Design the sequence.
């Protein structure tokens, strides 16, 4: 499929999914279009498991998952309400809240990835030891529309490093560019690098400044109108994710198998079952473990954001020259109003179900 046809097909597809909602009988589940910012992989294993294990269905939701090539291509579909819930980085919303800018009418309603999902990796034998060693080098990124790009640029500006950002995509094209040394390093998300490792490539992760590493990453976002008009749907979606998080933490193997049931083409062919599960679990947990990074593990407030984290994000973007002032009204970028609804389930019962699963 040509790029021009692909661009046309995305809005057509999501438009068709939304239109299908009006054709459902009254007793049918509510149709929800969920947009990712890259191809579907085990990095969103917990989200796919929420669908496969029936947690969305239990909330009266029929969720379709649609892939986009970066935050920059997802958000226009969300502002037009063709996609109901997205999974982007927060950078773009903060940038749009600068003085003189038109704010994007979206808000985050569920804090999912509670640490940065983005990494910098080099071949294990590379002479590059630190991010400063990338000065004058080529850095492979998924696309210039990816949501991590503002923070990546901010980080290198602060470090005084001049690096060339080279779009290499994700998966096989990115790995080939890396192995052929057409780029000196990769700046992709955690699960992509985990996949690269399971394929036999030995890599080394470069340390990031702590203030950037500690920034939260992808979360669930919706149009402000949806948050106002249909909080029940969003509450159900978040509660299903919280349930799936407990399930996948208790039995990650069953979570991986649930993902493969939804996407059988992603299960490795011709690979020993035990090895496939081992690799699949590594890939899934490279992202999923960040869902579990709570200050108080005994009192998990699923989906909750800390205002200070948003302020830290704005400060990092400002110091890196990506926004004109750190005094951005970040409180308008998110809401914690639905957090009490996300908590309304029996975690012990979900864990028991997970332990009983094959």
Sequence:
């Amino acid at each position: 499929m040509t790029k021009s046809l692909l661009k046309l097909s995305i809005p057509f597809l999501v438009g068709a999914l939304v239109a299908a909602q009006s054709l459902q009988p009254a007793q049918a589940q509510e149709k929800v279009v969920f947009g990712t910012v890259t191809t579907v992989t085990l990095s969103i294993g917990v989200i796919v498991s929420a669908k496969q294990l029936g947690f969305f269905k239990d909330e009266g939701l029929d969720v379709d998952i649609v892939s986009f090539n970066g935050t920059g291509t997802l958000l226009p579909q969300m502002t037009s309400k063709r996609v109901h819930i997205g999974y982007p980085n927060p950078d773009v919303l903060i940038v749009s809240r600068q003085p003189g800018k038109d704010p994007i009418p979206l808000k985050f309603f569920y804090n999912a990835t509670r640490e940065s999902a983005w990494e910098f990796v080099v071949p294990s034998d590379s002479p590059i030891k630190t991010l400063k060693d990338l000065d004058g080098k080529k850095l492979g990124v998924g696309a210039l529309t990816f949501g991590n790009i503002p923070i990546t640029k901010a980080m290198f500006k602060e470090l005084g490093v001049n690096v060339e950002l080279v779009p290499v995509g994700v998966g096989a094209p990115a790995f080939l560019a890396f192995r052929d040394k057409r780029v000196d390093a990769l700046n992709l998300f955690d699960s992509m690098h985990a996949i690269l490792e399971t394929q036999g490539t030995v890599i080394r992760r470069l340390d990031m400044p702590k203030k950037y590493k500690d920034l939260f990453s992808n979360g669930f976002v919706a149009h402000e109108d949806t948050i106002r008009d249909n909080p029940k749907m969003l509450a159900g979606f978040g509660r299903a994710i919280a349930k799936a998080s407990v399930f996948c933490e208790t039995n990650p193997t069953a979570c991986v198998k649930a993902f493969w049931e939804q996407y059988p083409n992603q299960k490795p062919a011709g690979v020993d079952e035990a090895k496939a599960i081992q690799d699949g679990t590594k890939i899934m947990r490279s992202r999923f473990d960040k869902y579990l990074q709570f200050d108080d593990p005994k009192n998990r407030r699923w989906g909750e954001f800390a205002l200070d984290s948003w302020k830290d994000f704005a400060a990092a973007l400002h110091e890196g020259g990506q926004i004109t002032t750190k005094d951005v009204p970040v409180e308008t970028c998110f809401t914690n109003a639905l957090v009490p609804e996300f908590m309304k389930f029996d975690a012990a019962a979900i864990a028991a179900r997970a332990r009983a699963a094959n």
